[in-house]
Structure formats: structure tokens, C-alpha cells
Amino acid sequence: MKRMQPENNAEELEEESFDDFPSPPPVIPEWARQEGSQWQRLDEFDILAKAEELTGLSLEIKYEPLPIGVWGIHLVRGERGRVFVNSQLPPFWQRFAIFHELYHLLNHTKGARFWQHTFVSMESFENRADSFAWAAAWPEWEENQYCDWN
Question: Is residue 15 very low, low, confident or very high in pLDDT (cuts 50, 70, 90)?
């Protein structure tokens, strides 16, 4: 998942931060609410266990300082997968990024090259991943669960 930012030189990047987060959608689609509800309030261990069962992959989540604008990325090699999450994000948005990348792991298993050559736009895949992430993280957002975390 990458949020677009203007290109800056290295000094400006250090001063940049994640200040502009998206607002929740006015309506979460029914398909996303149904799929996302199965993931709500799971801790990281249970998220990984459930995702491993569904994908057949051995998965892990790594928190790394990624470039500003990159929230997360997932990689699959053979039977192993890894979700990288930007450690510079606030806790709620880290969870959002996990769910976003999880959606891709569960639903876009043929890789970006394949999907770029279909008649479906990549933007629609990103929008669906965001809808799923909102649905999965909704109770935490609604309760402002991470408001006092640094």
C-alpha cells in the first residue's frame, strides 16, 4: 500500500511525517463488512494463524521504517510470505496497513504483473483492500482505541 506524496529531496523527507490520514468511507460495502468482521479485534498472532490457514503460507509481519508514503507491502516467495509495515505509522494505521496487505494476500495471489494485464484497474484492487481494512479495523476506529498511544 502506497500513499502518493510529492517527490522531495532527502532533507525534506526527514521532516515529512504522516499527518494526512484518510477519513473513513461514508459507507463500508456489505461484502467488506462481512469479510472484515471475521478479522475484527484479532491480535497479531491470531491474524497470522488465520491468514496462514487460508493461504497455506507461512507468514510473518515485520515493522520497518519504510519511506514516507509507503504504509505497507507484502512479498511472497514459495511457501513463505511477509508483510512489511511502516513502523513510523501510528498504531491504528499500522493495523490498517496489515489488513490492507492481508486482503491482497488473500485475494490477489497471481501477482502484480498478472493483474496489470487484466481489464480491471489496479486502483480498484487498492480500493477493495482499503474497504476490507476499514471493515476489519472499524471497531478500533470507532472506539478511538489507540488515541493515547505514542
Answer: very low
What is the bridge-based pairing of β-strands 80-86 and 58-64?
parallel
What pLDDT was estimated at residue 43?
96
Residue 61 has phi, psi (to 5 degrees) of -115, 130
At 20 the pLDDT is 80
pLDDT score, position 124? 75
Burial of 125 per CB tally in 10 Å (0-12, 13-18, 19+): middle
Q: How far is CA 139 from CA 33, 63, 76, in A?
A: 11, 23, 29
pTM exceeds 0.85: no
Instruction: For residue 128, count other CB atoms closer than 10 A to its CB.
Output: 20
Distances from the Cα of 145 to the Cα of 13, 46, 139, angstroms: 29, 19, 8
Q: Which amino acid is at 15?
A: E
Q: Residue 77: helix, strand or coil by DSSP?
A: strand
